Amino acid sequence: MSAQPNTKFAPAPKTTVNGREMSFKEQLDQAAHDAREPDEPPKQNPIIEKVTQYIPAAAKILGNPPEDKEEKISRPGIPGPPERPYNDAQVEEFIRQQHRSKGEDGVLE
Fold it and tell me: Which intervals of the chain are annotated as region Disordered (predicted)?
């Protein structure tokens, strides 16, 4: 066992002020004041961190700003529109003929 205090727990509250002992009420008031104004910023809920890690769009709703990633994924350039097949004009004409041959009720004549 070491003689040093364990740092996992909060520091012991002050029991004396200006050379006199604090009353129990004063100790409670001091503890409440310390609890309201913690020294370090509060950590966010770990569940929210996991959700925003897997669903980046949820960060806007849950209030967790995404962390800047140093490794950016390089994507190849976005390709243009696909090339039309060689028989596209034939297919287009066939569809037009089918459309023209429909009657007013939508059935092929």
Answer: 1-109
Alpha carbon distance 45, 43 (integer Å) = 7
Q: Where are the beta strands (DSSP E) in the chain?
A: 16-17, 20-21
Over residues 7-33, the pLDDT tens digits come to 555 555 566 777 778 888 888 888 888
pTM: 0.25
33 in Cβ contact with 13 (< 8 Å): no
Cα distances from 98 to residues 60, 88, 109, in angstroms, run 50, 15, 10
Q: How many CB atoms neighbour CB 64 within 10 A?
A: 16
**Distance in angstroms (rounded) separating the CA atoms of residues 49 and 56:** 10
How many CB atoms lie under 10 A from the CB of residue 2?
5
Enumerate the β-bridge partners of residue 16: 21
- The one-character DSSP state at 102 is B
